Amino acid sequence: MGALRAAQWRYDNAEPDDDSAYQAAAQNWIESNAEALVGGCDVLIPQRFGGPIGVRQEEYVAKVAEHLRSLQEAEQDDITALALLLLQAKAGGPVKSMVEDIVGTSDHINGKLYEIAEGMLDQYAEQGLKHEADEAGL
Questions:
Q1: Contact 33/42 with Cβ under 8 angstroms?
Q2: 126 in helix, strand or coil?
Q3: Are the CB atoms for 84 and 95 separated by under 8 Å?
Q4: CB-side exposure of 39: number of CA atoms within 13 Å?
Q5: How do strand 43-45 and strand 53-55 relate by DSSP bridges?
Q6: What is the rounded CA–CA span in Å between residue 136 and residue 29?
Q7: Per-residue pLDDT, 33
Q8: What number is the average pLDDT over the span 53-78?
Q9: Looking at beta carbons, which pairs linking 51-57 to residues 24 or more positions away fall under 8 Å?
Q10: Which of 26, 57, 106, 121 could form an SS bridge with 112, CB 3.0 to 4.6 Å?
């Protein structure tokens, strides 16, 4: 009976496995691929069977457009800022600093566009890390 009680105590007081290294790698994968997505690239992970999975540029653009529509419906969009952005872009002016005025603010260090990209990529981090590990092992 003592062995059973000891085993139950170990089970009840067991600490979860430390997965902080995996979590850091996953976050790094998400951040680096969000950079690619915001920069205009697809983020696709080849699969052994079937086609690649991930986020295509068209899907990201649609998600950003959905966000802009939600701002418009909530009457939180700034149409003047959008007009100014278009005029500056046409004239070759500096438009990068104007993006936050259009898409809104974010707690994310790189802004709302990266927040959206990382949200879309989060579900693919595990497959992306596995693919990178397979590639490194070859």
A1: no
A2: helix
A3: no
A4: 8
A5: antiparallel
A6: 15
A7: 96
A8: 92
A9: 53/124, 53/127, 54/121, 54/124, 54/128, 55/117, 55/120, 55/121, 55/124
A10: 106
Token pair 């490194």 is found at 136
Nearest-10 Cα torsion for 120, 123, 127, 130: 100
0.85 surpassed by pTM = no
Gap between the Cα atoms of 132 and 39, Å rounded: 21
Give the pLDDT score at 52.
94
Is 25:109 a contact under the CB 8 Å cutoff?
no
Residue bearing tokens 């800022």:
81
Per domain, the residue ranges of the chain are 2-137
CA 122 – CA 14 distance, rounded (Å)? 29
116 pLDDT more than 90: yes
Q: Which two tokens stand for residue 110?
A: 């790189």
76: phi then psi, degrees, rounded to nearest 5: -110, 10
